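Supplementary Methods S3. Complex input for the zinc ion-bound model.
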Amino acid sequence: MPDTIEESKSNRATCRTCKQKIDKGVLRFGEETVNTFSSDGGSSYFWHHLECAAGKVPAKVKTAMANFSGAIPDREKLDAILAAPPKASAKGGAKAAFPYAERASTSRSKCLQCDEAIEKGTMRVAVEREVDTGSFTTTGPGYLHPACAAEYTGDDALIEKIKTNMPTISQEDLAALGAEL
Ligand SMILES: [Zn+2]
Ligand SMILES: [Zn+2]
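Predicted complex, serialized as structure tokens:
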């Protein structure tokens, strides 16, 4: 079951975002969740007020809205929430602006320039790139070997920009980056 938008069938559901009741008859957003209690691996939904979900998981809501054929009251208000920059999460805070650099946390990312894997623990440069999800385009990080970054971006001042975006980057990381850029 993909994420969904539907008219609330009862007033028994509670919004997972704000913990308030979802009134019967209003549109609600269902976030797919795997039901660990069912032996056939079935899934069920966590329900949210549409507006609460728009602020919390905008990408998912946009996808669900694209698949929803009914009318959405307060559509403008919803679009405004969806267009707003994501709130900094309580855990990690806002992600640094692009470009930034970091140690690769896995060996799964591939370099945008040479298409080779970026080894875990080595420095990688993250740049903003467009990601086509099929129904809409969003932006997300793309990764590069430092040695490939200058060629990919054609930007001689890349390391200066990274320094500006990452005032707390360690000298060690910066040196590792500078050696290759
Ligand atoms: Zn809510
Ligand atoms: Zn590369």
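The longest helix spans residues 58-67. Residues 111, 113-114, 116, 144-145, 148 surround zinc ion (ligand 2) (CB under 6 Å).
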